[in-house]
Design goal:
Helix content is about 90%, strand content about 0%. The chain is mostly helical. The protein has one domain.
């Protein structure tokens, strides 16, 4: 029994060291950029992995299969870039004006509803609410516009990420072998079984999230086109992007579309809210259970707490990565209990 407890202690130390390394990556800006790059590459690798394994099963060399997939994805993105970018920049030229219109709308609502100075507490609450909304809109508009303009960073990612994805796919067995060599021989079989379990759960979760986000993005685009809302491509892209985040994501993704709809008319904003709410109900209650198959079973309160921690630690990337990371820790804990005891 003493040996078993020693093994548990050893695995706990390894996990704590891994958490410390992640923490250092988050806190040091240069390392944070590297972490972001690897997280993006990791997600893309898992999205391509089923196709890679299929090609390998058909007799294609692992490296050749990886090259085929990376070039295939690159061609798809280049085609989408050439087709979408002109339309994207047409929308983007008017985006700043739309954000100014939103700010003016908030100002008008505030000054029309502002209570008299005699209403001290009510006046204070109204002022606080106004300045809070004002800061959120300004912050959001600044971040969106700055993000759209950081083409140099996007180009760097576009060059480096495919290279990292290629090595993740082609050298998977080599990486796996070297990681196993870090552990004692008697523990390698247990570590291998746990890693296979993690690989299965993470693969199912990541692919299901990408499928659901693609569905949400396409349907959002159609809804906004039907309602004749400005910037349908950008707004649907934002909604699909945020849909990766559980619980909070659909809310964050819907707010920009509702704001832009409100510029057109309050009725349009209400229609957008109703349609997007219906879309999220279909996605969350009908499609998600079938696609994800409970790949990550956690209590909603735990997920919300994890999202808050992830946001505080690493922003959007933290919110995306924290749930699968917690799932990995959960799998390691449960599997260690199973294999050791």
């Amino acid at each position: 029994m003493q040996i078993k407890w020693n093994n548990i202690l050893k695995y706990i130390v390894i996990i704590l060291i891994a958490i410390l390394i992640v923490f250092l990556f988050i806190k040091i800006s240069i390392l944070k950029e590297i972490l972001y790059l690897f997280v993006v590459s990791f997600f893309i690798t898992y999205a391509l992995k089923p196709f890679h394994e299929k090609l390998v099963d058909m007799g294609v060399n692992r490296s050749v299969a990886a090259i085929i997939l990376v070039f295939g994805i690159a061609l798809v993105f280049i085609g989408a870039f050439l087709f979408v970018i002109p339309y994207f920049f047409r929308e983007n030229l008017n985006l700043k004006n739309a954000l100014n219109d939103i700010q003016n709308l908030i100002d008008n609502i505030y000054f029309s509803l502002k209570p008299s100075k005699s209403s001290g507490i009510l006046n204070m609450l109204t002022n606080n609410l106004y300045y809070k909304i004002h800061s959120v809109v300004i912050s959001f508009s600044g971040r969106v516009y700055d993000s759209l303009m950081k083409l140099s960073s996007i180009l760097i990612y576009a060059v480096i990420v495919p290279i990292v994805v290629y090595y993740f796919l082609s050298d998977e067995k080599y990486i796996e072998h070297n990681i196993l060599n870090l552990f004692p021989i008697k523990s390698r079989n247990t570590v291998y079984n746990i890693s296979c379990h993690i690989d299965k759960i993470l693969g199912r979760y990541i692919i299901s999230q990408l499928i659901l986000s693609l569905f949400v993005g396409i349907v959002t685009f159609v809804i906004l086109l039907v309602l004749k809302v400005d910037f349908p491509f950008i707004l649907s892209l934002i909604n699909a992007f945020f849909n990766i985040i559980p619980y909070f994501g659909p809310i964050f993704g819907a707010i920009p579309a509702i704001f832009v709809g409100f510029i057109k008319s309050p009725k349009t904003a209400i229609e957008i809210a109703i349609w997007l709410y219906g879309l999220q109900q279909i996605e969350g209650n009908i499609l998600s259970p079938k696609v994800t198959a409970d790949s990550i079973s956690m209590h909603p309160l735990i997920v919300i707490l994890l999202l808050l921690i992830g946001n505080k630690a690493a922003g959007f990337i933290g919110m995306v990565a924290v749930v699968p990371l917690a799932a990995v820790v959960k799998i390691i804990y449960k599997d260690l209990i199973y294999y050791i005891f």
